Amino acid sequence: MPELPEVETTVRGLARYLDGAKIARVALNRPDLRRPFPPGLVQTLTGATVTGLGRRAKYGLIHTDRDQTMVFHLGMSGRWRIEPERAEKHDHLVLETGAGHVLALNDARRFGSVDLIDTAALEQWPPFAALGPEPLGDNLTPRHLHQAFKDRVAPVKPLLLDQRIVAGLGNIYVCEALYRAGIRPDKEAGKISRPALERLVPAIKTVLAESIEAGGSTIRDYAQPNGELGYFAASWRVYGREGEACDCGGTVTRFNQGGRSTFWCAKCQK
Prior knowledge:
Elements: H1 4-18, E1 23-28, H2 41-45, E2 50-56, E3 59-64, E4 68-73, E5 79-82, E6 91-97, E7 102-106, E8 113-118, H3 126-129, H4 142-149, H5 156-160, H6 171-181, H7 194-213, E9 252-257, E10 260-265
Antiparallel strand pairs: 1-6, 2-3, 3-4, 4-8, 5-7, 6-7, 9-10
Helix pairs in contact: 1-7, 4-7, 6-7
């Protein structure tokens, strides 16, 4: 599933073609993805000018001069194809700019979604209202995590995946951040020391920033018309490395945690 760095990479790629552009044509090639496309989507976007793009958690945002924002989620298999050579079966939403650029939202499994929200009401939109701070923003601090974890007996890793505590973190990057911070993923969150939290917050920010710079881990870099792969997977230190040697001399192991694979090193994560 696309995680925060992949969505951020996608938004930055789209911005090269959409930011400041007029949308000349909108085509829907089916009525729905995970749920129906918003009524009036075609009418609202056709002729609109894109005033900016952004991201909230794992959602991409396309703002327009009509005070409406198109919010998209890539679900399990969604991707934007930029300047595709030919149409594909799963190009369900197609945008064409006044300059002739074509961008197609392709989603074979259709677990993604598209919504149209009043820009001024974005923060109050139910999926956003309960979200925690952005992990790359100034509001994710050791103090915030200390308050969120206080007296919690639940393991730290599932709590970091809770979007109400931190918005947008996914399985790969939580595993990697906990490794870099030297924290075992099954440690009771309420027992994590302040010094450990002081290590964890910069580890989260660093691993996300490095992945964005590398174009992500799990899906294609949609900024490139040739669909080059993101290459951060080559930098994983524990994720997907079960049985391999850790840099500390230990061995990376895997266990199931909340229905997801957790990778860690027992020697250097305490």
